[in-house]
Amino acid sequence: MPTPIIIKPTKSIKGLTPMIDKTHVNFDPELAGRAIVDGLAYLKERLDWSGSKIAKTLHLPANTVNTWLKNGFTPINSHVLHPDIQVVIHLLAIHRSLEAMFDNPLHQRAWLTTPHPELNAAPEVLMSQSIDGLIYVRQYLDYVRGRGA
């Protein structure tokens, strides 16, 4: 029989607090929707990608992504994120890693378009083939950055 997990209180500035905070900040779907589009707009400008290229990478209809960008808002209905929004977050995480690794957007684009032996392809190709490819590139970048890149 598995041993139950016991959450022990820890000391903090506020006194004793549980290690797992069961309270959460009120989720504002409008603010989250604007933040997602702000991230996509920044990525679009920084990498010089079109809305259609972003949509292809995210495996979403181009008119959906272009509408989000045009309206400056992504519809988010709850704190449980729809899979469409989750893939956007993966792409933004990839971009965050590239920003940390390279100051110059030309180098970021070069990294995305150059075949890497560890990936057996260019990251951009993997990301456009499937959502699994997008997630794989994110995991690879997380691994590389964890090793000091």
What does the secondary structure layout of this molecule look like, with pairings?
Elements: E1 9-12, E2 15-18, H1 29-47, H2 51-58, H3 62-71, H4 83-101, H5 105-113, H6 123-129, H7 131-146
Antiparallel strand pairs: 1-2
What Rg, in angstroms, do the CA atoms define? 19 Å
Helix count from the secondary structure assignment: 7
Strand arrangement in the largest pleated sheet: 1-2
Shape: globular
Query: N- to C-terminal separation?
Result: 43 Å
Poorly predicted regions are: none
Secondary-structure element order, as H and E? EEHHHHHHH
Structural class: mainly alpha
Largest sheet: 2 strands, antiparallel
Give the number of domains.
1
Can you offer a commentary on this structure?
The protein is mainly α and 149 residues long. The protein has one domain (28-146). The protein contains seven helices and two strands. It has helices at 29-47, 51-58, 62-71, 83-101, 105-113, 123-129, 131-146; strands at 9-12, 15-18. A two-stranded antiparallel sheet has the order 1-2. Helix 1 (29-47) crosses helix 4 and helix 2 (51-58) crosses helix 3 (62-71). The termini are far apart. The mean pLDDT is 83.
List keywords for this structure.
149 residues; mainly alpha; two-stranded antiparallel ribbon; 5% strand
What is this entry, summarized?
This protein has helices spanning 29-47, 51-58, 62-71, 83-101, 105-113, 123-129, 131-146; strands spanning 9-12, 15-18. The chain is mainly alpha-helical and 149 residues long.
